[in-house]
Amino acid sequence: MVSGNNSGSAHCMGPGLRGNETMFVTPQHSPGKCPVKGNSEDATAHVETNETKEFISSPLTFHSNDESGSVVMFGGVDSSYYTGSLNWVPVSVEGYWQITVDSITMNGEAIACADGCQAIVDTGTSLLSGPTSPIANIQSYIGASENSDGEMVVSCSAISSLPDIVFTINGNQYPVPASAYILQEDQSCTSGFEGMNIPTSYGELWILGDVFIRQYFTVFDRANNQVGLAPVA
């Protein structure tokens, strides 16, 4: 088990099912955000590999104080970190931890991915990323607008009134509340969504980064090519 607080750095696993390795990446110069792809040739990343473990568990519960932190477990699952049962989602394409998302909805209406789409479950991405067009629609739904620094800002007062954005995955719903997808720092609030076009042969590709994973205990099961998800405790 690896543990520690995340006030000054980010601890990320990625990119996933690549050969016989799992990788634990700690960026040295980019606190709070990790590269989508981390490897031993990346000058800003330190990489450790482990070729024997079948499970990686990642409850990314970030805290604002110095006494609590996030935990990454190699080789097992600790049920005290989640509630209910793990729902297992098969990996749809080997290479990343890529899965199929059924839909993305708000107030019961599809706002993206209406006919299904592909997504990467990635601890190495801080935000929740998707193709630029549907992400632009989501930014509009939540009232985000670009400021002079290029940030998508949202009124902090909107957090209490905005609805959950629900990701339906393998028939199960995973709501992400406004308190998760709107990021607060000091007196400012920004959107946790980011537009990013990633061309693949599978259509639009989303990245379920830390904004999503903070809400759901995540297990990467390499032996069975599946990802387990359950609400964090």
TrEMBL record:
Record keywords, A-Z: Aspartyl protease, Digestion, Disulfide bond, Hydrolase, Protease, Zymogen
Top-level taxon: Eukaryota
Hydrolase as UniProt keyword: yes
A GO biological-process term: digestion
Molecular function GO labels: aspartic-type endopeptidase activity
Peptidase A1 domain location: 1-230
A Pfam family: Asp
Disulfide links within the chain: C113-C117
Entries under InterPro entries matching the protein: Aspartic_peptidase_A1 (IPR001461), Aspartic_peptidase_AS (IPR001969), PEPTIDASE_A1 (IPR033121), Peptidase_aspartic_dom_sf (IPR021109)
Family membership noted in the UniProt record: Belongs to the peptidase A1 family.
The protein, known as: Peptidase A1 domain-containing protein
UniProt organism field: Aotus nancymaae (Ma's night monkey)
